[in-house]
Amino acid sequence: MKNLLAKKDGELLVSRIYQSESTQFEVKSCLIGGEQVMVIAGPCAVESEELLKETAFKVRAAGAAMLRGGAFKPRTSPYSFQGLGEKGLKLLARVGEDMNMPVISEIMDSEDIGLLADYADILQVGARNMQNFALLRKLGQLNKPVVLKRGMSASIEEWLLAAEYILAGGNSQVILCERGVRSSEPWTRNTLDLSAVALVKELSHLPVMVDPSHATGVRSLVSPMARAAIAAGADALMVEVHPQPEKALSDGDQSLTPRGFSTMMRELEPVARALGRRLR
Amino acid sequence: MKNLLAKKDGELLVSRIYQSESTQFEVKSCLIGGEQVMVIAGPCAVESEELLKETAFKVRAAGAAMLRGGAFKPRTSPYSFQGLGEKGLKLLARVGEDMNMPVISEIMDSEDIGLLADYADILQVGARNMQNFALLRKLGQLNKPVVLKRGMSASIEEWLLAAEYILAGGNSQVILCERGVRSSEPWTRNTLDLSAVALVKELSHLPVMVDPSHATGVRSLVSPMARAAIAAGADALMVEVHPQPEKALSDGDQSLTPRGFSTMMRELEPVARALGRRLR
Amino acid sequence: MKNLLAKKDGELLVSRIYQSESTQFEVKSCLIGGEQVMVIAGPCAVESEELLKETAFKVRAAGAAMLRGGAFKPRTSPYSFQGLGEKGLKLLARVGEDMNMPVISEIMDSEDIGLLADYADILQVGARNMQNFALLRKLGQLNKPVVLKRGMSASIEEWLLAAEYILAGGNSQVILCERGVRSSEPWTRNTLDLSAVALVKELSHLPVMVDPSHATGVRSLVSPMARAAIAAGADALMVEVHPQPEKALSDGDQSLTPRGFSTMMRELEPVARALGRRLR
Amino acid sequence: MKNLLAKKDGELLVSRIYQSESTQFEVKSCLIGGEQVMVIAGPCAVESEELLKETAFKVRAAGAAMLRGGAFKPRTSPYSFQGLGEKGLKLLARVGEDMNMPVISEIMDSEDIGLLADYADILQVGARNMQNFALLRKLGQLNKPVVLKRGMSASIEEWLLAAEYILAGGNSQVILCERGVRSSEPWTRNTLDLSAVALVKELSHLPVMVDPSHATGVRSLVSPMARAAIAAGADALMVEVHPQPEKALSDGDQSLTPRGFSTMMRELEPVARALGRRLR
């Protein structure tokens, strides 16, 4: 790790020099950072119990280990659908319990940490909040895993130092999530930076997740980018699945159908094996 | 304003179509958005009463109307100087009062809004929090002006919609601040986007500020970029000044000395007049 | 000038350390790099004698010193209008002579250097060819001024080193032209980087031009960006003007009408004077 | 393929709508675009016969099918090593013949097309010349395969339309090469855009190559990115190998040693098989 990542009196907590073995931790019975590539799937936003149940049932059948679903949605416009809030969290928690799947949801306001911690097994910090340092500090005092998405145009150094805010507070259960960086390419929503995955695995002991759905914004690219992410060394994938993408309240264009998800999982399996890993 | 900025049932509150006349408001006796180009100056961070007083005295003498100074600093690393907190705010308020200058300081955590509102005349949202929607909503309920800095790689649409979160909450005293966008150019810290100033003045009725110090990160570029900002239509400038930049606890490379600030002000004067405006 | 611009055995020829006084040279009776801010105007492409004459007549009346017009057009698609070629050059040269205006046109192929040199007073290298080193070397052996546009995403160092290829060949009549860098902002075609103008004036003795038309791609932004360019220190401006922009064969959206150009010139005049310069 | 890629009177020649089956062609006995993922290896620049022979012998033994080596080098500075020119081409051709490996080298000047065509089996257009339309047109009249590298910040549409210039001239043996796009990340030289590989395979019938060496600029990232490229659908890889990278005249930091290359090949093999392909 280059000097710019060293603090004055020693190495950063996120650094592989500080800790050479890769961080692993369990979420319910799912091991993050181990041999298995963990696949998290679900709708962008929790919309209704029925849709969520159907999605959860189908993605679990296809091999997903955890369930995702946004209850508080960071939307560019104040007039867009903002998520179901606490009601959405409750639905997510209930469906997760029924299906025996740990659940992950986004934290947007530090005042909601208690609420999120009550219902979700993993809290996700979105790209727009990667340098919301007040939020990061508070998550450092939490005893729950945190997914830290890379900011829209954050450098790798900034991303690792944002994670350091959480570790410095005492919470070392951090998963770094690459979700694409902003570029001038209009065809894809963002540009997925898979070299960041390989680099961060080298620089840090923290597990790394890839979100090919938000990264590309294009349904047909999700599966090839999921394959490439595993080949680059990702420990986990987070994929948007919606039974009727064309009716989704947000991000329909990038959501797989349950059938598409199932096809993707079959395509991922041999790639994971080629890397000496497995999907479940 | 293009369709992408229209909401379903009418125009956005930030739009010039919704409100054709430019927004103006007073901060103590300083009029924002009027004929005068308002110049705000001061150190990046409040460090000590003595340094702050010296800076304030000298920038006021050179023509600055308001005083800036960070008490809560958004730092990439958790181990960098984080600001003096409430103590810094108190110093800033006291010096501002002594010098008869309104003061501006950054809000980083929604929990500190009350504290900031007690001491500062204008609250500043930094680039990293431009899409901290929870914070923006709460600032919408405040009766104080807010400076909204453009995010590192935010589009103009995203920036205006972030302002819309504040206006939609009932607070229409918003100043948009261009501070450079992230680019691949290594020589400057960011790339100052002055076309955004002219464009936003066309699309919106809100006043626009430019921060040439953070935008360039290079002392010698501050004055030429301040001139260009006025020529592009900026209503206000925010400039970092430190009596001993080489000893500043943050951002010394881009800080002007009081003498440099004074020179800059003399260079700005004729440009402002050429645009039919004045510096004070 | 930082070390990265130094060559092993001394300073670069483009450097202000190598040559402290600003480079000036005459094109017919127009002095480039002097007190006057030179304004070059004309259509994106030469389309017909009639349109070119009308444009030249009107822009000269409004104060333009030189005439621009593309005969070989670098078009993204092979099926777009590619320019009139030699016929266009002849028209340009004839109209320039009639109006007593030096003319500038783009060189795309090193095989055409002789042809261009026969008709044009200044040869322009487009952004796409900024690192066409074979072309740059040949232009180094020419005894005519060359405008070197900055590449789409070229760093300032790369731009100056591209100019060095020409100077190293013996041709020191080089004008650097900032025309916007590629960014993720969809509202403007490119992001005009005016800090590059101030920085390059500091690093190099070469004159600097700004092209606000290509930089913004938006007609209403041309005049404010031209003002800001002068305020930032530009020595010349190149502006697209077309009598009927909506019918232009290329780049109509960014072309000013002759009347719009005339208005712009009146707005530029006081800004130039505020900087101690004049338009003519 | 979206409308922006359609020409007025039909589909583009590069489009999968125009031609649904993937383009395949042979270079000597190597089939490009078929089941095999073609691996091209060799030094950045041809430096000496001895080094080239050693490299060729070792990369062939490890499974490389073709040999690369620059004779004309596009260097940012005119004072950097520019390549051995024709002498380098002759060496490359001779070693290629001895080893029974087709050779690939970069064309920088349209005047050298004949020379390149005499010695090289495939001509490569570098990123800086992707929109050197004069060069592309001339390559359209050649009866040799052309590798077209994506420009530093070229959009996918611009890249495909640059290829269209070659196809429109009659040469349909074009290989598209992704080599990273410019970004603000300082840790890697460029940001490898693997979503572009999957997208271009969907939009076009042309074979796609990935250059993980130039894309990352970091030796340790070459192998993971090569794996990810195959997983994303690449038909070919081009990798820099140098027996003594620390002594290389250019790009040593990103060159693999022959031993490192051999390790990479062993790591790629199972990934290729997982995708139903093979390395040789």
From TrEMBL, chains A, B, C, D:
User: A Gene Ontology biological process annotation?
Assistant: aromatic amino acid family biosynthetic process
Q: What is this protein called?
A: 3-deoxy-D-arabinoheptulosonate-7-phosphate synthase
Annotated InterPro entries:
Aldolase_TIM, Class-I_DAHP_synthase, DAHP1/KDSA, DAHP_syn_2
Per the UniProt record, the source organism is Syntrophomonas wolfei subsp. wolfei (strain DSM 2245B / Goettingen)
Q: Which domain of life does this protein belong to?
A: Bacteria
Q: Does the keyword Transferase apply?
A: yes
EC number(s) per entry? 2.5.1.54
First-level EC class: transferase
| Gene Ontology MF: a single term | 3-deoxy-7-phosphoheptulonate synthase activity
Q: Where is the DAHP synthetase I/KDSA domain?
A: 30-266
